[in-house]
Amino acid sequence: MNQLVFFFFFFLFGKLCLCDPRATEAALICTNTTASITARKSFVANFLAVLDSFTPLIVRQRYAVVVKGSGDTRVYGFGECMKDLEQGDCNICFAQCKAQIMRCLPFQIGTRGGRLFYDGCYLRYDDYNFFDESLSETDRTVCATKDVGLSNETGFRANVMQLVRNLTVEAPKNDGFFVGSMGKGNNVSVYGLAQCWELVNASACEDCLVNAVSRISSCLPKEEGRVLNAGCYLRYSTNKFYYNSTAPPVGGNRGRRKLAIILATTFSTMALALIFATAIFFVNKKLVKKRQESKQLGALSPLLNKSKLNLSYESLEKATNYFSDTNKLGQGGSGSVYKGTLPNGKVVAIKRLFFNTRQWVDQFFNEVNLTSGINHKNLVKLLGCSITGPESLLVYEFVSNQSLHDYLFVRKDVEPLRWEERYKIVLGTAAGLAYLHEESKLRIIHRDIKPSNILLDEDLTPKIADFGLVRLFPEDKTHISTAIAGTLGYMAPEYAVRGMLTQKADVYSFGVLVIEITCGKRNKCFSPDMVCILHMIYIFELEGMESI
Ligand SMILES: *[C@@H]1O[C@H](CO)[C@@H](O)[C@H](O)[C@H]1NC(C)=O
Ligand SMILES: *[C@@H]1O[C@H](CO)[C@@H](O)[C@H](O)[C@H]1NC(C)=O
Ligand SMILES: *[C@@H]1O[C@H](CO)[C@@H](O)[C@H](O)[C@H]1NC(C)=O
Ligand SMILES: *[C@@H]1O[C@H](CO)[C@@H](O)[C@H](O)[C@H]1NC(C)=O
Ligand SMILES: *[C@@H]1O[C@H](CO)[C@@H](O)[C@H](O)[C@H]1NC(C)=O
Ligand SMILES: *[C@@H]1O[C@H](CO)[C@@H](O)[C@H](O)[C@H]1NC(C)=O
User: Fold this and answer.
1) Which residues belong to any copy of the Protein kinase domain (predicted)?
2) Is 424 annotated as a binding residue?
3) pLDDT at 307
């Protein structure tokens, strides 16, 4: 319990302490294949096995080298954190990276490999041994859009170039990693970081960085630049982005850290009560029902081959105008969503899933049959599916007002939500979750509660989207599910880092959601507005929980 309290504040005041996993994406680079579909299926299995074995290695040694499978379908995987990151940040960055590499899935037609560069960590998989590769054709240079904004930028250019050259000399001598800064005392300081991946030797590291230096110069005079090579990462910025492990960042941080500690102590009692209430509430009934329900599930075997739920791929393809971009509503972790009009005129939302391997199809259909029985006003209704075409498709009711995420953070054409409306959304979401967790016959853990998964209909009744799918994954493969479900900032810490999953993970995400709804701010950019946080705890504890 103490640990939970710690984590709660770790999250709330994450910005204030030294924890920044730098889980911002620098680039995602996917590569193509011409391999046959049959080969791809076992490639996929190996790919998932690779992802699965990463986490313990990262936790132990901060990098991971994994090879799975044999012959044509062998998959090579590599991951590493930047050497200045603390272990906890490293774990979080990597968890997020692992989830997002799914966007370069080998399931998608043609994809053969992928590289995901975060500013705090790196992940790559491919179909050949790339471990000591230093340069490749798909290496990338990423520059900021903003100029540094000086009338005479000669000095800035010189500083940047001297800095990156220095990093290039020092990094190969220092275990493949170096940070530094230039121009202290001037108005514009510049900071840099160079790192070569663990299996790249010193001479290859130097080659890689020398190449990076020549390319990063094209970013000048932008305020930030990165080169993302197969063997190394080089970045300069006018912001100090790295940690200097011998001395914690100076300046405002320490004072704010102190504040965070004070706040944490003051409110830990409240948090304790809050978490207690939450945990007890959700665990309580569950324990009673649990055994009996798992038996029921076993009895519901898939004898539903000719179900009316199964729609033809062709008709759904037509309904969405062949998945045209103009029909696209959005992109989620497990697939893209399109607006479609069925032959009978009904408007629906059609989700095109990334996953379509044989082993999942049966389970998938079974799942659809089960979850289609779920009917609750705060859950998006599943109308049908298609499992015969090249991709699995899911058909949902169309919810008119888009997502809570758009409503709160994106759209400028709508009035800010009134308090009663926010309250209604919080209660409705809670009711939907309680139904998933407790009242439905299936115990469903959503795993990805966040504003973009809460849809709003005309009168702003919230509807939870995307539930049920995660149950598709085999029981023992919790890491896979971890990789797919979950978004940094909403993931319960014990789930994000160790893959431990209970309903509490949803409750945690729900808590974050409530704060966001109340504050109208994304959790990414929380500033500790205490009135707001107090308000949230108040609603959450006194009213929200009682009326669920
Ligand atoms: C990869 O596939 C896409 C779409 O099929 C194509 O446009 C692109 O040129 C391909 N890239 C390579 C390197 O083959
Ligand atoms: C370093 O790695 C490169 C590329 O893999 C290789 O050609 C070279 O022989 C290696 N150098 C040493 C000293 O091991
Ligand atoms: C910019 O500053 C450098 C010295 O820092 C000077 O040599 C150069 O002439 C200046 N350029 C302009 C356009 O003022
Ligand atoms: C590079 O950085 C190191 C360590 O900060 C410093 O000792 C050295 O003088 C620098 N070299 C150059 C060429 O700036
Ligand atoms: C890191 O901190 C130490 C001690 O304060 C300092 O000597 C060193 O110059 C710093 N290094 C960088 C790259 O900022
Ligand atoms: C720093 O900025 C101030 C005004 O903003 C200017 O007067 C001064 O010359 C600048 N110093 C340097 C070293 O560029």
Assistant:
1) 323-548
2) no
3) 60
**CATH of range 404-548; options 2.40.10.10, 3.40.190.10, 1.10.287.110, 1.10.510.10:** 1.10.510.10
The DSSP symbol for 84 reads T
Considering the chain, tell me which residue range(s) the CATH 3.30.430.20 domain(s) occupy. 1-131+251-296, 142-248
Q: Where in the chain is the domain with CATH 1.10.510.10?
A: 404-548
Q: How far is the CA of 32 from the centre of ligand 1 (A)?
A: 6
Q: What pLDDT is attached to residue 263?
A: 35
Residue 36 CA to its chain's centroid (Å): 30
Closest CA to 78 of 137, 21, 133, 157: 133
Bridge partners, residue 234, by sequence? 194, 227
Of residues 19 and 8, more confidently modeled: 19
pLDDT over 60 (residue 457): yes
Least confidently predicted of 13-22, 231-240, 404-413, 510-519: 13-22
Q: How far is CA 250 from the centre of its chain?
A: 30
Q: Which residues line ligand 6 (CB under 6 A)?
A: 186-187
pLDDT tens string 501-511: 777 788 888 98
User: Looking at the CA of 151, which ligand is closest?
Assistant: 3
User: Class of the 298-398 domain?
Assistant: alpha beta
Q: Which atom of ligand 4 is nearest to the CA of 162?
A: 14
Q: Of 2, 1, 10, which is closest to residue 491 (Cα–Cα)?
A: 10
Statement: the pTM of the whole predicted model exceeds 0.85: no
Q: Return the exposure string of 203-228: e unless at least 16 CB atoms fall within 10 Å of the residue's CB, then b.
A: ebbbbbbbbbbebbeebbebbbbbbb
Percentage of residues of the chain with pLDDT beyond 70: 66
pLDDT in tens, 458-482: 899 999 987 766 554 444 444 334 4
Look at domain 142-248 and name its CATH class: alpha beta
Q: Which ligand approaches the C-alpha of residue 196 most closely?
A: 2
Identify the CATH assignment for 1-131+251-296 out of 3.40.50.300, 3.40.50.2300, 3.20.20.70, 3.30.430.20: 3.30.430.20
- Most ligand 2 atoms within 8 A of CB, residue of 78, 128, 130, 132 to mutate: 132
Contacts 24+ apart (CB under 8 A), 59-63: 59/87, 59/91, 59/497, 62/87, 62/90, 63/197, 63/198
Residue-averaged pLDDT of the chain: 74
